[in-house]
Amino acid sequence: MRIVAIGGGPAGLYFGILMKQAHPEVEIEILERNRPDDTFGFGVVFSDETLSFFDQADPVSAAALRAGFRTWQEIETRYRGERIVSTGHGFAAIARAKLLAILQQRAQSLGCTIRFEREVAASAALPDADLVIGCDGVNSSVRERFAAEFQATIDWRPNRFSWLGADFALPAFTFIFEPTPHGLFQVHAYPFAPGRSTWIVECSEETWLRAGLVRASEAESVDYCQRLFAPHLAGHHLLANRSVWRQFPTVRCGRWHHRNVVLLGDAAHTAHYSIGSGTKLAMEDAIALVAAFRELGTGDVPAVLAAYEEARRIDVSKLQRAAQTSLEWFENAPRYQVQEPAPFVFNLMTRSKRITYDNLEARDPRLVESAAREFARAADRDAPEKGEAAPLPPVFVPYQARSIQLANRIVVSPMCQYSAEEGTVNDWHLVHLGSRAVGGAGLVIAEMTNVSAEGRISPGCAGLYRAEHLAAWKRIVEFTHRHSAAKIGIQLAHAGRKASMRLPWEGPDLPLTAEEGAWQVLGPSAEPFRAGAPVPRAMERADMDRVLADFVRSTRWAAEAGFDWLELHMAHGYLLSSFLSPLSNLRSDAYGGSLENRMRYPLEVFAAVRAVWPAPLPMSVRISASDWMTDGSGFTAEDAVAVARELKRLDCDLIDVSSGGNSPASRPDYGRMYQVPFAEKIRYEAGIPVMAVGAILDADHANTVLAAGRADLAVLARPHLADPYLTLHAATRYGVDLAWPPQYLAGKPKPAAR
Predict the structure, then answer these.
(1) Residue 574 a catalytic site member
(2) Could you tell me the CATH superfamily of domain 2-330?
């Protein structure tokens, strides 16, 4: 078997090393465009976890690498004149030139042939081989040749960066945030050899333009950065190596192999330098490809390549998602400059979601304590100062909204139960909501409650449009107030064009038939949600007035029932949400077209509801902050900010930030805490408190979101289905002594020591 690797970087070299050990008989040729001693960039950094993979894959090269590594456990952040050191992280770095030299020597010793100064252009014929590996970096000619087959996309990020070096060794991984009249400059730096550090400078394109760097030569850029960071360089100098200002390309490929050609490393996928994983990904790709050859042999190359891609796809996707979150954090870094140092550093450490509150507390308890103390101080100026009692974890810090104080910041999300009878809630709802209230949550929001019979999703949906509904809800509210410290809210809604459906366990998205009691549904336009769904009647002014009056009536009854909190549902494609989205609102009158017009009716409803809801009680609005359309159409995060600003103007207290639901063509990027960035954006840009929701799986996630300043309340749905007593259990684990119902005191565990 003959294998040719196009690209002599870490991916191609490491593949050669491992493949020669697995199948010594295979002929491996590595073609590298540069000379043996050429290298661009400065150092390469790895985590301790990655080094353990190298130890297992090839102990010989791993030992040589370890001998050349510079290691440390700290991350230092320089912000607002302070230097905050976070411990317990574990990194190792090495000069890129040294890394390549070690891998080159090892590959050659095992029989790989390396040919330098061999360029293979995209237009040139591929080498004759049983397998061709495209490991030729971010500007891969192999990927370019088969761009359609690999389904390659490149997302050029807006920030500018310059990859520099410094002629001294920093003590640790170092982040620097330096404000200037032109904007914020950021540094990602780390030591990699005696007397040497990598020093990456990043800024927004606007800052780069205002600073005049668009016209600067390499030498002029270095001089600018030298002067800007002089206090941090302490007399040392920055070094250049093709250090032009660039934009980071996020490369993704729908497929990594085509016939006998496969992509490895940056040719297939890139990960932003802020999580330092490009070389890691490349070498782990090599490990996985050789593992597939070990398992399947060399006789069926397509099967091997398919197995390799299947084995690596999920891990790479997770890391690219973390890298995307991290790079977006740095793109948005100017917004965080209002934070105090401790929460700012906590925010920075947890930016990619790979490190959470509990994980960081295990690594660096002092930083987490400082961030928690600052969170408590910001919420209550009378909170204990440093040196007094340990601060409460953020989820257990009370929250004040108008006259209502929540005992903690965990919210039970509204969850449809589809168990009402003609809109009337019953014993199921009493047990469902009552158990979550007894379970310790600060706020329990009852399920989507419809303001009319025609506004129900299904015949099993809850309502508040008949007098008997009021009595049934009052029973649940009184139970909650009598037997728990929780506050209880109600979410009022109209399902719009998504109404008149069967119960979900009778079949997903199945409309009712006439024989089953189907009813006429309403919408901003006569456009069904999907093919086969009920076709709505486009609302006329009389319909809009009637529905608005329904909302007002239900609001009055919600107040009479004793609810503490009212939420208006403008999300998930239901009526008010469908007015907001251009995917569902095709009107040409004053209620369609521009965002200003599309939000007009939802805002009219909010204003009418706020006018009759008691002034001392808070109101929130749930919105879908994005339609998740891959072509950028639909309702966007920028639209959500604009709507939130208008709701704030009308005296809305919080925005409950969800997403999706307006179109079956939506493509959400699911993952833990996946909707939190929308909540954060609205919190900072609209200046209104927010609830974050969406795969917040436990109190650890909630603490992470809150301590970082990304939201004010954490909303959990499905975790509360699995554990109604989630908050009480979390309190025990965090050492917080929450009140238990007297009936359950015999089973109350002793809180952990704090």
Answers:
(1) yes
(2) FAD/NAD(P)-binding domain (3.50.50.60)
